[in-house]
Write a structure and sequence with these properties.
Length: 212
């Protein structure tokens, strides 16, 4: 068995708690590059070593990329530990390595790591309601888009809307057509800014003011 050297950290007690206090709900605050993913992957590993089924574990992340990276890290940790290597991130939780029982649980879970739910909050919620499309008024064929594809689709929708709005007979009372005719570039930038605002503030509504 290989045990990596560990450098004392100011927040070591908090890291140990995150890895070992599996029956408690914890709030962990940490900056970029502080090892949050390693701690979360280590906590999942310790849950698996306690015989928690992979399908009973849900990890919610901000992006799909982070979710996939988390699953990769969990797989890496499990393989390393089963191979006898205890890295510095995990040594506080496994100072003497795996017990026979923990090893048996991890070996059993290894073939089912893909059953761990690692997703964004949107993807997780969709997985909950997708089996019930009628009750949720959801298109059965709907899916989640990553931010880049979503913005690309939104740009296409805006472009189609403008083309339809500006096609056909000219309307002198159409403010949109007038703005685009007078200042095309500035008007398009204004529409894009407005759409971006509406996307970021879904609950925003027009407030009517009564002139006295």
């Amino acid at each position: 068995m290989t045990i990596s050297a560990i450098t004392p950290l100011a927040d070591l007690d908090a890291r140990v708690a995150a890895l070992t206090q599996l029956d408690r709900t914890l709030l962990v605050e940490a900056g970029a590059g502080s090892g949050k993913t390693a701690i979360l992957a280590g906590r999942i590993l310790m849950l698996l070593a306690r015989n928690v089924p992979p399908k009973a574990i849900a990890a919610i992340t901000f992006t799909e990329l982070a979710a996939s990276q988390l699953l990769e890290r969990v797989t890496q940790f499990v393989d390393e530990v089963l191979g006898g290597e205890i890295r510095a991130d995990l040594r506080p939780a496994l100072p003497s390595g795996l017990s026979a029982t923990q090893r048996a649980h991890l070996e059993s879970a290894r073939a089912h790591l893909d059953e761990i739910t690692a997703s964004t909050i949107h993807g997780f919620c969709q997985s909950l309601i997708k089996p019930y499309p009628v009750e949720a008024s959801l298109d059965p064929g709907s899916g989640m888009l990553d931010p880049a594809n979503a913005m690309f689709m939104l740009a296409e929708i805006l472009d189609t809307w403008l083309r339809e709005r500006l096609s056909g007979a000219e309307r002198e009372d159409d403010m949109i057509a007038t703005l685009v005719l007078l200042k095309p570039n500035e008007s398009l930038d204004l529409f894009k800014t407005l759409v971006a605002f509406m996307v970021s503030h879904r609950s925003a509504r027009i407030v009517s003011h009564q002139v006295v």
